[in-house]
Write a structure and sequence with these properties.
Number of domains of chain C: 1
CATH topology of chain B: Alpha-Beta Plaits
Radius of gyration of chain B: 25 Å
CATH architecture of chain C: Up-down Bundle
Number of strands of chain B: 11
Shape of chain B: elongated
Oligomer: heterotrimer
CATH topology of chain C: Fumarate Reductase Cytochrome B subunit
Largest sheet of chain C: 2 strands, antiparallel
CATH class of chain B: Alpha Beta
Distance between the termini of chain B: 72 Å
Largest interface: B-C, 48 and 50 residues
Structural class of chain B: alpha+beta
Strand order of the largest sheet of chain B: 9-2-11-10
Distance between the termini of chain C: 27 Å
CATH architecture of chain B: 2-Layer Sandwich
Strand content of chain C: under 5%
Order of helices and strands of chain B: EEHEEHEEHEEHHEHEEHH
Largest sheet of chain B: 4 strands, mixed
C-alpha cells in the first residue's frame, strides 16, 4: 500500500478491482464501510463475479477475467478525452512532460525493440530524450508530440467505450458511469483509493494491471493524498514483511537486489544501482544504495566484511537467472533439483498445474516441510484416490517434516499491507514437538556450520563468517533479530554538519533512522527500511498509542511504519508545488516557511524549499511519477491489453496478431499444455472465500463447518445448458486436469458478450485438499496453467479455460 | 449466569407474576444489512463463545453453511440473490438469521414448562435448558421459526443474545467480532437512534425505501434490522409477524380457565346430581322393577 | 370362561364382561388416568405438580405419548369387540328423548341392548376422540414424528389435542359418575357379573337374551 488501511476512510471513491476485500480482508474492509458511512464514499466493484464486496457496492461491473487493462485503458482514455485530470499535479509531479527518445514506437500490439525469438524486448528505445546538460528534456506545455502525455493519449485512443465493452463485457453505460465517478476525483479535494490484491497480480499481465491503476492515480492527482494511492491488499499475514526482508529469490532486504553474474565486482554492482538524478535538484534517493548495501553486509558478516573485500561481495550468490516459483518447479520437473525446503509453504496446493508439481516432487531426493500443519505437499506421495492418484511405491523422495509454530505461539513483528510493523506477543506454546521457525533454522544452520568447521569445503567462508552473536545460538529471539534488522552504530557516527557536535549515534547504540547509515562500515543494518523500528529508545513496533491528532488515521504512536514511521508514501505530493496542501481539509504535510512539517512524517528532504523544485517522487532519478515506465517493465512502457494465455476468444480484439503477453516466459512443455476455446470453451478464475484462509483453515473445525466442501460457481444459463442444478456434482476440466465439486448455480455470474460471442465464466475457489477437517476435495490448482507474469512470474491463476459437465452424484 | 431473580420479568408456564420491581434499560442488537458482508465471523464467534461445534456438513448448492439453524448453530447467514426491479441490477441480500428476542415472545407463551423460557428485564428471551422438557412447543409459538430441537438431549436451543455476557456489561460475541460494524449493541433507544442515522444516510444514497424492522405484532423485538430495500419480505422476514392465533388461543388465559372450569364443573355437576337425585339402586330381593 | 362368583345364595347373576375385557378396560383406565394427569401438567402450570408423579416433567413428557399409544391400542382392542352392541337402534332414540328425565329418575326408558343410548353415545365419541388424540399426538410427538410436520400442522394439532382431551375428560367423567350412580354397575367391571335384578332393570332386553327368559 502506498497509504494504509485506516486511510481508506478518507476516500471519496473506493475502487475495488482485482480484489475482494470483504472476503479476503474482512477486517480491513471496515475502513471501506467507514468511508461509505461517514465520508459519503461511493464504492465501485469491478470483478468477474458479484462478490460479497459487490454486495455492499454502489456500482458493480462484471468483467471478463484477464481484461483489466482494457478496462483501465478505457478509463485513461476517458480522463484524457474529457481532460478530467489534475493538471497541475500531472505537469509538476509526473513525467507527462518528458520527451521520449526518437525510436520508441508501438505498432500492432508490439512496442519497439521486440525480439521474436527471445520473446523479449531490447528496451533501449524506451527512454527519455536526454539534453546536453545530462538531464532529461521536458515540454511543460505537454504539446510536444513525443512527450509522454501525447504518446499516452495516442496509445489509449484505441480504448474506446465500445472497445472496452467488446473486450471486457462491461456495458458502455455502466463503464461510462464508473468513468465519471473515477473522473470526479481529479478535483484537488476529492480522492479515489484503489484496492487490489491477487485479482490483479495473478495474471500474465499482473504487474501492468497495477501500473495502469498507478497511471490513473497519477493523472487524478491521487498519489500521496489521504484517501488516495494504489493499495495492494496483501494476501497473507506478514507477506509484506516477506518482501521487505528480501525473501524473493532475486531480492536482498529493503528491496536491494541480488547481484547478477554480469555484476562482476562490487563497483559494477553498486554503480548500476546508485542512480544519479536526471533532472535538476532532484533527490534520487537510491544514490544512498552503497550506504544500505554496506550496512547490510556489515550486519551479516561483521568484521569479515571489509572495504578491501568489497564488503564481502563474494559471499553473495550471483544469479544466472531468476529462481522464481515456476522456474524452480520447472527445474524440479526436469529432474534438476535434489532437495527442496518448504517453509510455511504448500506448493502442491498453491502452485499451478498440480500434476506437474507431483511429478517434480517425485523426482526429489528429499523434501523438508517446516509447517505447523499437515500440508498436501508433505503428503504428496500418499494415494488419496482421485484426489491424489499417485503410486507411493514408485516415489523415492524422503520427506522430513519439522513442526513449527503458529502465529499465536511466537512473538515478533508482523508487517501489514500498510507497512506497519506491529509487535505481537506469544499466547501459547506450540503443541507437541513444534518449535519456532528461527529455532529450527538456527539448529540447522549451527549444525551445517559445525560440519564446515570440521570438514572444510569448497567455500566455507560465508557460512563460517556469518554474524551469529545471539545469546542462545540455537534460539535467536525475536527481539535480537528485530534489533539486528534495525541496525546499530559500529563506531561513533559524527554529525556531518558539525563534527564537534555529539555524534548522531554512539558506537554500539541502536540506530534511530536510516539517514544515519554510512557506507564506510561504521554502521550495520539488516534491513535499511526497518531502521528506526527498534531504536535506542526501545521497540517502536510495540507502541500502542491510538492518538490521531489530525483525524486522518495518522496514528504516529501506534506500531511503526516503514519507512521512517511514514504512514502515507509520497505524501509530499499531497501539497501543491508551493507547499500548500491541495485539500485544506485533508492536510498531511506542508511547507511552513522554514521546513516541511505535518501530521505525517514528510516523505521529502525536510529543508528543501519549494522554489528549489525538488519533486515528490524522491526514489526516482527524475523525481516524478512515471506515466511512461521507461525500461522498468518487461512488456512495455505503457500497459497494453494482452489476452490471457488461455483466452475464450480467438484473437485479441485490439491487435489480432499479438494475443497474450509477448514478453512472458512460457516453457515449451507448458505451452503444449495450454487449452484452446474449442475444447475448453469457458473462462475460469480461482479465488478465496471469506470462510477460509488458503489451505490452513480447512484444518480448523469452525471454518470447516462454515464452508465444508469444494464448490464450483456457474451462471444460470450455462448450468441450464449442461443440465446442472445447485447442489449437483460438477466436473471441471482443463487441459491439465480435472476436478469435481458441488455446483453453486448463481445469478452473480452472468454470461458476457465478448467480441460478438457469448462467454461464460466459471468460478473455482481454492481451499480444499486431501488433508483437513473439511470434506476432502480436489486441489483446484490441478486446473491452472504453468505460466506467469512477465515481470514477477506470478502464476496466471485468475484467467484460464475449462469445460464443465455434470458429474455422477456422490463423485464429489 | 450473572442474572438474578429480580431480572426475570416473564417466565413460561408460571402461575405467579414474576417480579416487576426492577426497571432495566431494554437492550437491542442492530443488524445493519447495508454494512454486512456475510463473512460469517458472527457465526464463528457464536460457536466459539457458546462452545458450539456443529457437524461439518456438505455444500448444499449455495453459501448458507450450515444450511439451517440447528441446536449447534444459533445464528446462520442467509444469502438471497434478487434481481431488483427497474433495472437496479442484482442484489445479494445477506441476512443474519437467529432469535429476534420479541417483546412478546411466542416461544415463552407456548412453553408448558415453568421457567424453561424466561424474559429478562433488558428484553432478552432466554431458554433455561435445565427446565426444558423437550416438547418442542416453543417452535410452534415462534413466528420466526427460530428454536431448534436437539436430538441428542431432546432440548430446544436458540440464540441467548449472549445473556451471560450482557449481564456483566459486555456486548454479544457476534457484535464484538463483527469486522464492519454491521452489528451494533446498546440500549434499544440508542439502537433505534443509530438506525435512524443509517436510514438518513441510506436514503441519501438512493435507498428511498430503507426501513427499520422492529415488528409491532410481537411487541417489537430486541434484534433490529436496517433493511436498505425496506420490504421485509425481500429479506425473507415476515411482514407482520404475530404469534399464531392457534397458539395464542390454546395458551391463552381464556382457554386455560375454560379448561379448568370444564373439569371443575364436571366434578361439581356430578356431586350435586348425586346429592339431588341419589343413586339408582336395584332391589336385589324384588325381581320387579323398583319403580 | 366364567369368572369366579361369590353371590348370596339364591341370587341370580348374569355374566357381563369376560376377564380379558375387564383387564383391558382397567388397563385403559390406568393409562387414561396417567395420560390425564400428565396432560394436565402440560396444559396448565396450576397442575404442573402432577409431573412429580412421573419422576419429573421431562420424563413425563417422554412417557405421555407412549402411554397414549398404549391407550390407543388397548382401547381399540377392547372397544372394537363391542361395536355390535353399540349400534344405535330405534329404541335408543326414545331413550335419548327421555334422558334428562332418566337422570332425574323421572323416567325409566326401555333399554333393549347391552348398552343404553347414553353408553352408546359415549362409546362412539370415545372411538372418535381417541383416534383424534392419537393422530394429533403423533403430529406433536417429539422427537420422532413432529419434525416431519409443518409448524402450522403442529400448531393446529396442539389446539385440537387439548380440545379433544377436554371432550374426553368430560366423557370419562360422565362414564365414571354413571358407573358410581347406578349402583351395581361397578361389579360388572370388578367381578364380570351383574345381578339379575340389575340386568333386568337396566338392560331388560339384554337380560332376556342372556338368560333365555322372558323379558320383564
Amino acid at each position: 500500500m502506498t497509504n494504509n488501511w485506516v486511510d481508506i476512510k478518507n476516500a471519496n471513491v473506493v475502487l475495488v478491482m482485482g480484489g475482494n476485500p470483504a472476503e479476503a480482508h474482512p477486517c480491513g474492509f471496515k475502513w471501506v464501510v467507514e468511508a461509505k458511512a461517514h465520508n459519503k464514499a461511493q464504492l465501485i466493484v469491478v470483478d468477474p463475479r458479484f462478490t460479497r464486496t459487490a454486495a455492499v457496492a454502489d456500482v458493480f461491473a462484471q468483467i471478463r477475467p484477464g481484461s483489466d487493462i482494457a478496462f483501465l485503458g478505457g478509463v485513461i482514455r476517458h480522463l484524457l478525452e474529457k481532460d478530467a485530470i489534475q493538471k497541475d499535479y500531472v505537469t509538476s509531479y509526473t513525467n507527462a512532460a518528458f520527451i521520449v527518445k526518437e525510436g520508441y514506437g508501438f505498432e500492432d500490439g508490439l512496442f519497439s525493440g521486440y525480439d521474436e525469438a527471445k520473446h523479449a524486448y531490447d528496451k533501449s528505445s524506451w527512454s527519455y530524450e536526454m539534453g546536453a546538460d545530462g538531464f532529461a528534456k521536458i515540454d511543460p506545455t505537454l504539446q510536444d508530440p513525443r512527450c509522454v502525455y501525447q504518446l499516452m493519449k495516442r496509445h489509449y485512443a484505441r480504448y474506446t467505450p465500445k472497445m472496452v465493452a467488446d473486450v471486457t463485457g462491461v456495458p458502455e453505460g455502466t463503464f461510462q458511469r464508473i468513468c465519471e465517478a473515477i473522473a470526479s476525483t481529479s478535483a484537488p479535494d476529492r480522492t479515489l483509493t484503489s484496492l487490489y490484491a491477487l485479482g490483479w497480480t495473478q495474471h500474465s499481465v499482473g504487474a501492468q494491471n497495477i501500473r495502469t491503476m498507478g497511471m490513473i492515480q497519477l493523472l487524478l492527482g491521487n498519489v500521496g493524498m489521504p484517501g488516495g494511492g494504489v493499495n495492494a491488499l496483501r494476501g497473507h499475514s506478514n507477506i509484506q514483511g516477506l518482501t521487505d526482508l528480501g525473501l524473493l529469490s532475486d531480492l536482498l532486504p529493503g528491496y536491494m537486489t541480488v547481484p547478477r553474474e554480469a555484476d562482476g565486482d562490487v563497483e559494477t554492482y553498486l554503480a548500476k544501482r546508485t542512480q544519479k538524478p536526471i533532472r535538476p535538484n532532484q533527490m534520487s534517493y537510491w544514490q544512498n544504495y552503497p550506504k544500505f548495501y554496506v550496512s547490510f553486509m556489515k550486519a551479516w558478516w561483521g568484521k569479515a566484511a571489509t572495504k578491501e573485500n568489497g564488503w564481502a561481495y563474494d559471499y553473495l550468490p550471483k544469479l544466472d537467472k531468476v529462481y522464481d516459483l515456476l522456474a524452480v518447479f520447472d527445474l524440479m520437473y526436469e529432474g534438476k533439483v535434489n532437495g527442496y525446503v518448504c517453509q510455511g509453504f504448500n506448493p502442491l496446493a498453491s502452485a499451478p498445474n498440480k500434476a506437474k508439481l507431483l511429478e517434480g516432487l517425485s523426482k526429489l531426493k528429499f523434501l523438508v516441510s517446516i509447517d505447523p500443519l499437515v500440508t498436501e505437499t508433505s503428503n504428496f506421495w500418499q494415494n488419496h484416490g482421485d484426489l491424489n492418484p499417485v503410486d507411493p511405491s514408485k516415489i523415492q523422495t524422503e520427506v522430513f517434516r519439522l513442526p513449527s509454530s503458529c502465529f499465536a505461539e511466537e512473538e515478533g513483528s508482523l508487517v501489514n499491507s500498510g507497512r506497519w510493523l506491529q509487535w505481537h506477543w506469544k499466547a501459547a506454546e506450540p503443541p507437541g514437538e513444534g518449535k519456532g521457525d528461527p529455532e529450527i533454522m538456527a539448529a540447522i544452520f549451527n549444525r551445517i556450520r559445525t560440519l564446515y568447521a570440521k570438514e572444510g569445503g569448497a567455500f566455507p567462508d560465508p557460512i563460517r563468517d556469518l554474524t551469529w552473536d545471539y545469546k542462545i545460538p540455537d534460539r535467536p529471539s525475536a527481539e535480537e533479530l528485530a534489533r539486528e534488522f534495525n541496525g546499530k552504530a559500529l563506531a561513533d557516527v559524527p554529525d556531518p554538519k558539525d563534527p564537534k557536535a555529539p555524534p548522531l549515534a554512539k558506537a554500539g547504540d541502536q540506530l534511530a533512522t536510516f539517514a544515519h547509515l554510512q557506507d564506510d562500515g561504521s554502521t550495520a543494518s539488516g534491513c535499511w527500511i526497518f531502521c528506526g523500528s527498534f531504536t535506542q529508545a526501545g521497540n517502536q513496533m510495540a507502541r500502542r498509542d491510538t492518538a490521531d491528532p489530525s483525524g486522518l488515521g495518522v496514528t504516529p504512536g501506534w506500531g511503526w511504519s516503514w519507512p521512517a514511521n511514514r504512514r502515507v508514501l509520497y505524501n509530499r505530493a499531497s501539497a501543491d508545488p508551493s507547499g500548500k496542501p491541495w485539500d485544506p481539509k485533508r492536510k498531511l504535510v506542508w511547507w511552513n516557511g522554514a521546513k516541511w512539517v505535518g501530521h505525517d512524517v514528510p516523505d521529502f528532504k525536510v529543508d528543501s524549499k519549494p522554489e528549489e523544485g525538488m519533486s515528490p517522487f524522491i526514489m526516482n532519478p527524475e523525481g516524478v511519477g512515471r506515466l511512461f515506465a521507461l525500461d522498468k517493465m518487461a512488456e512495455g512502457p505503457f500497459p497494453e491489453h494482452y489476452e490471457p494465455f488461455e483466452s475464450p476468444i480467438g484473437a485479441n480484439p485490439l491487435h489480432p496478431k499479438v494475443g497474450p503477453n509477448p514478453a512472458a516466459r512460457l516453457y515449451a512443455k507448458d505451452k503444449a499444455q495450454l487449452g484452446l476455446p474449442g475444447e475448453f470453451p469457458y473462462a475460469a478464475t480461482t479465488y478465496r472465500v471469506v470462510e477460509h484462509f488458503h489451505f490452513w483453515t480447512k484444518h480448523a473445525r469452525i471454518p470447516a463447518v462454515l464452508q465444508p466442501e469444494l464448490f464450483i460457481e456457474l451462471d444460470e444459463a450455462l448450468a441450464a445448458k449442461k443440465g446442472i442444478r445447485s447442489g449437483d456434482a460438477v466436473a471441471v476440466r482443463s487441459k491439465r486436469g480435472r476436478i469435481v465439486g458441488k455446483a453453486v448455480v448463481t445469478k452473480r455470474i452472468k454470461p458476457l458478450k465478448i467480441a460478438g460471442q457469448e462467454v461464460h465464466t466459471v468460478g473455482i475457489p481454492i481451499h480444499w485438499g486431501f488433508d483437513g477437517l473439511t470434506k476432502p476435495g480436489y486441489i483446484s490448482n490441478t486446473l491452472t496453467p504453468f505460466v506467469g507474469d512477465a515481470n514477477t512470474q506470478t502464476p496466471e491463476f485468475k484467467a484460464f479455460l475449462v469445460d464443465v459437465e455434470k458429474a455422477a452424484a456422490g463423485k464429489v | 449466569m450473572a442474572f438474578q431473580s429480580l431480572d426475570v420479568i416473564n417466565r413460561s408456564a408460571s402461575t405467579s407474576t414474576p417480579p416487576q420491581a426492577r426497571g432495566a434499560l431494554e437492550v437491542a442488537k442492530l443488524i445493519d444489512i447495508s454494512k454486512c458482508i456475510g463473512c460469517k465471523a458472527c457465526q464463528s464467534a457464536c460457536m466459539e463463545w457458546n462452545d458450539l461445534r456443529d457437524e461439518v456438513g456438505v455444500n448444499p448448492g449455495h453459501y448458507d453453511n450450515p444450511a439451517d439453524l440447528t441446536a449447534q448453530s444459533w445464528t446462520v447467514m442467509r444469502f438471497y440473490e434478487e434481481e431488483l426491479p427497474a433495472d437496479k441490477g442484482l442484489a445479494w441480500l445477506i441476512v443474519k438469521d437467529g432469535c429476534l428476542h420479541c417483546a412478546e415472545p411466542g416461544c415463552l407463551k407456548a412453553c408448558p414448562a415453568p421457567g424453561a423460557i424466561v424474559q429478562y428485564a433488558n428484553g432478552i428471551v432466554d431458554f433455561q435448558q435445565d427446565q426444558c422438557i423437550g416438547c418442542g412447543y416453543c417452535q410452534t409459538g415462534c413466528p420466526f421459526n427460530i428454536p431448534r430441537y436437539s436430538m441428542k438431549d431432546q432440548k430446544a436451543y436458540k440464540c441467548t443474545l449472549c445473556s451471560d455476557r450482557v449481564s456483566v456489561g459486555l456486548e454479544p460475541a457476534c457484535v464484538k467480532t463483527c469486522p464492519t460494524g454491521a452489528l451494533a449493541f446498546g440500549t434499544k433507544t440508542d439502537m433505534k437512534d443509530l438506525a435512524g442515522e443509517r436510514l438518513v444516510e441510506l436514503k441519501a444514497r438512493g435507498f428511498e425505501k430503507a426501513a427499520l424492522y422492529d415488528p409491532s405484532g410481537v411487541g417489537g423485538t430486541h434484534v433490529l434490522f436496517v433493511l436498505p430495500h425496506g420490504d421485509p419480505e425481500l429479506y425473507r422476514l415476515p411482514k407482520d409477524p404475530r404469534v399464531s392465533p392457534l397458539v395464542a388461543l390454546w395458551r391463552s388465559g381464556v382457554a386455560k380457565t375454560l379448561g379448568v372450569l370444564t373439569m371443575v364443573s364436571v366434578v361439581v355437576a356430578g356431586f350435586f346430581h348425586y346429592m339431588k337425585v341419589g343413586p339408582i339402586e336395584v332391589d336385589e330381593d324384588h325381581k320387579e322393577n323398583p319403580s | 370362561m366364567m369368572p369366579a362368583m361369590r353371590m348370596p345364595p339364591g341370587q341370580e347373576v348374569v355374566p357381563r364382561y369376560s376377564t380379558g375385557e375387564r383387564l383391558t378396560h382397567w388397563a385403559v383406565a390406568v393409562a387414561y388416568v396417567a395420560l390425564f394427569l400428565s396432560g394436565l401438567a402440560l396444559f396448565h402450570p396450576f397442575f404442573y405438580w402432577t409431573s412429580a408423579l412421573f419422576g419429573g416433567a421431562a420424563f413425563m413428557r417422554v412417557l405421555h405419548p407412549f402411554l397414549g399409544v398404549a391407550l390407543f391400542v388397548l382401547f381399540y382392542a377392547y372397544a372394537l369387540r363391542l361395536w355390535r352392541d353399540n349400534i344405535m337402534t330405534d329404541s335408543d332414540k326414545k331413550w335419548m328423548g327421555q334422558m334428562v328425565a332418566y337422570m332425574n329418575k323421572a323416567a325409566d326408558p326401555y333399554v333393549d341392548g347391552k348398552y343404553n343410548a347414553g353408553q352408546k353415545l359415549m362409546y362412539w365419541s370415545m372411538i372418535v376422540v381417541i383416534a383424534g388424540l392419537f393422530l394429533t399426538g403423533i403430529v406433536l410427538w417429539r422427537p420422532y414424528f413432529a419434525p416431519s410436520f409443518s409448524l402450522g400442522a403442529r400448531r393446529f394439532a396442539a389446539v385440537l389435542h387439548a380440545g379433544l382431551a377436554f371432550v374426553m375428560f368430560v366423557g370419562i367423567g360422565v362414564h365414571v359418575y354413571a358407573a358410581y350412580w347406578t349402583k351395581g354397575s361397578m361389579r360388572a367391571m370388578t367381578r364380570g357379573t351383574v345381578s339379575g335384578a340389575w340386568a333386568r332393570f337396566h338392560h331388560p332386553g339384554w337380560y332376556a337374551r342372556m338368560t333365555g327368559k322372558e323379558r320383564p
